[in-house]
Amino acid sequence: MAVYTEVTDEALRTFLAAYPLGELVAFRGIAEGVENSNYALKTGSGDFVLTLYEKRVDPVELPWFLGLMEHLAAQGLRCPQPVKARDGVALRELAGRPAAICTFLPGVWPRRVRPAHAAPLGEALGRLHAASAGFHAVRPNGLGPSAWGPLLDRCRAGGDAVQPGLIAELDGKLAAILAAWPATGALPVGQIHADLFPDNVFFLDGPDGRPVVSGLIDFYFACTDLLAYDIAVCLNAWAFEPDGAYNVTRAHALLAAYQRVRPLTAAEAAALPVLCRGAAMRFLLTRLYDWMATPPGALVTRKDPLEYLAKLRFFAAAEGSAALGL
Ligand SMILES: Nc1ncnc2c1ncn2[C@@H]1O[C@H](COP(=O)(O)OP(=O)(O)O)[C@@H](O)[C@H]1O
Ligand SMILES: N[C@@H](CCOP(=O)(O)O)C(=O)O
User: Fold this and answer.
1) By CB atoms within 10 Å of each CB, which of 132, 183, 239, 287 scores lowest?
2) Residue 97 and residue 141 share a domain
3) Can you tell me whether residue 292 is helix, strand or coil?
4) What is a GO molecular function of this protein (predicted)?
């Protein structure tokens, strides 16, 4: 479910009249996604995605997100490119919501991650970081280490009902992560995606049948943070098998392909284990909070926080970066 705001044909036609995109040919709501309302749009000029930004996105931040996507697309990265209306403005309003049209990307996201996805993903992440180097506006990570304590506090009352002993375990693990977190200035910083999960990476089959990245989407958690933290997010999201086992071969392929674009510094390589623990903590906490805050019967499917407890435990026990595939 991800159409929270309905758009009438009439409102859409009036909205589209501001753009040089030709006549509306087809229009349908996209069921996937959780944050915003997305519509697939076909006009005389081609295929587009119309997004109406819902309550969880702060409208003040939208120019930063759209500016980053515009910058990355101009650098040749395959990501949604915001489309400007005739007056040069991409961020507009529709049905009482901030709204924007972006280019539609071909491909599908992998429902089942395979070893062959790892190298193209690593390369795409490296390219994203390289392409973002010229984008200088800063957006602090609202879900970075300083947010984890307050988020854990908000889960304190109900967390142990999800799993007995959970809150005490997270208190201990969070304290250890924060104590080992890299000092400011120790690692390279840049624009990161921060949520590059399989559902945000589209693939097509290349000429040899191997998957090729056809697009990266959903930049609405993007921020200015440690580049290597983005790798840690990807290892969390892509390197585990459905049975919970860490696939070190797949992780190695991801890391090696990334490093062909941007080699890691020695400090980044050494910090990888704590960055992976931090990324596991971040997704565990947001899932735990959503798990407790989402009322029964809500249309959004809740994501399992305990999947990330298992990942956090794995990273806490792993010995060094080599055990993670570096
Ligand atoms: N530029 C795009 N090109 C093609 N499909 C897109 C594009 N943007 C979004 N989508 C589709 O919309 C779905 C939800 O988008 P997403 O940005 O993940 O939403 P949310 O932020 O609400 O989670 C995606 O899974 C994809 O099917
Ligand atoms: N990737 C996060 C949830 C964010 O959802 P998205 O649909 O905006 O990518 C998680 O798995 O917890």
Assistant:
1) 183
2) no
3) helix
4) homoserine kinase activity
Any ligand 1 atom below 6 A from CB of 220:
yes
- Structural domain of residue 43, as residue ranges? 9-103
Query: What is the structure's pLDDT at 1?
Result: 47
* 166-204 confidence digits (pLDDT tens): 999 999 999 999 999 999 999 999 999 999 999 999 999
Q: Are residues 195 and 215 in the same domain?
A: yes
109 pLDDT band, cuts 50/70/90, is very high
Query: Please, which residues have CB within 8 angstroms of residue 166's CB and are 6 or more apart in sequence?
Result: 159, 160, 288, 309
Residue with the smallest CA separation from ligand 1 atom 23 is 33
Q: Which of 197, 219, 284 to mutate to test the pocket of ligand 2 (most atoms within 8 A of CB)?
A: 197
Pocket lining for ligand 2, CB < 6 angstroms: 33-35, 195, 197, 199-200, 218, 283, 286-287, 303
Q: Does a structural domain hold residue 174? A: yes
Is 271 a pocket residue for ligand 1 (Cβ < 6 Å)?
no
Q: At a CB cut-off of 8 Å and minimum separation 6, what does 126 contact?
A: 257, 258, 259, 260, 261, 262
Tokens of 210: 């191997």
